[in-house]
Amino acid sequence: MKILFTGDMVGSPGRQVFQRVTERLREKGRVDLIIANAENGAGGRGPSPEIAEALFAAGADALTLGDHTFDDKTLIPFLDTEPRIVRPANLPPRAAGRGMTVIETAEGPVCIISLIGRVFMDPADCPFRTADKLLNLCNTKTVLVDFHAEATSEKIALGRYLDGRVTGLFGTHTHVQTSDEAILPNGTAYITDLGMTGPKDSVIGREVEPVVQRFITGMPQKFDVSKKDPALEGVIVDVDIATGKACSIERIRERA
Fold first, then answer.
1. How does pLDDT run across 185-228, given as a tens digit for each residue?
2. Which end of the chain has fewer CB atoms at under 10 Å, N or C?
3. pTM for the model
């Protein structure tokens, strides 16, 4: 089974390139299941229910979120009724939505877990202990983890901690794709950051000049989403569905 997991989607350029590229990948038989981090899908903010539904229509089988989960208040009740969306599981217990879900596919069930980091991020429960708890509840062989975190060391540490217990752990949040994709010693596919599905001619998705001016002057600026050079970034993981082990991981960057 070939699974595509895409990096943080940014605005309408990200949504458009996502639809075009995933359609092409499916037509070529390169992917069987598509999971997208939709964290910045609405103009650089968290998605609305309408945008989430549009992403499902565009080819996503499941969506993961992060620190912008609750930007759009209309998404909050939707999170409790839509099982294909997961937000970080280590948010407070009363937070809306779910941190783990199971997607049924023709090849077999796939469990998806979302976690958020604690280094340089807002307060959250321990992602290591939360992962332990969720894995005790999960009875599928194929388990994919989106770890939405800032610090590379925290991502690498959790990847090593879960090596052999999950099919893949993929870092998100920085919008900058790393080149360390690997199958870890015990069979887990890993990358520190999937990158960004959005405009590459930008500063992590935003127009360049306002961001530069903010650094130079320290004055507030309006950070509009760039529309230049959109690309889809992520990984394609080939999974042995019988064992839940990753056979290979391929880092991709594709333009429409």
1. 999 999 999 999 999 999 999 999 999 999 999 999 999 999 99
2. C
3. 0.96
Cβ atoms 148, 172 nearer than 8 A: yes
Q: How many helices (H) and strands (E) does the chain have?
A: 6, 14
Angle at 44 between CA 39 and CA 49, to 5 degrees: 55
- For residues 178 and 191, the answer to whether their CB atoms sit within 8 Å is yes
Separation between Cα atoms, residue 243 and residue 149, nearest integer Å: 28
- Concatenated DSSP letters of 80-138: HH-TTEE--TTS-TTSSS-SEEEEE-SS-EEEEEEEE--TTS-----HHHHHHHHHHH-
In order of 78, 130, 155, 206, 246, the CA distances from 126 in angstroms are: 26, 6, 13, 31, 26
Q: Which pair of tokens denotes residue 160? A: 């090593």
**Nearest to residue 249, comparing CAs of 177, 154, 152, 158?**
177
Closest-CA residue to 86 (of 59, 119, 116): 116
How far is the C-alpha of 51 from the C-alpha of 141, rounded, in Å? Answer: 31
From the candidates 68, 148, 173, 175, give the one annotated as an active-site residue: 68
Q: How far apart are alpha carbons 87 and 115 in whole angstroms?
A: 8
- CA triple 45-68-105, angle to 5 deg: 100
Active site residue 173: no
What is the tens place of the pLDDT at every residue in 78-101?
999 999 999 999 999 999 999 999
Q: Which domains are seen in the chain, by residue range? A: 2-255 (3.60.21.10)
Dig out the tokens for 145 from the structure. 């983890």
Residues 230, 235, 236, 241, Cα dihedral to 10°: -140
Task: Tell me the C-alpha distance between 37 and 6, whole Å.
Answer: 6
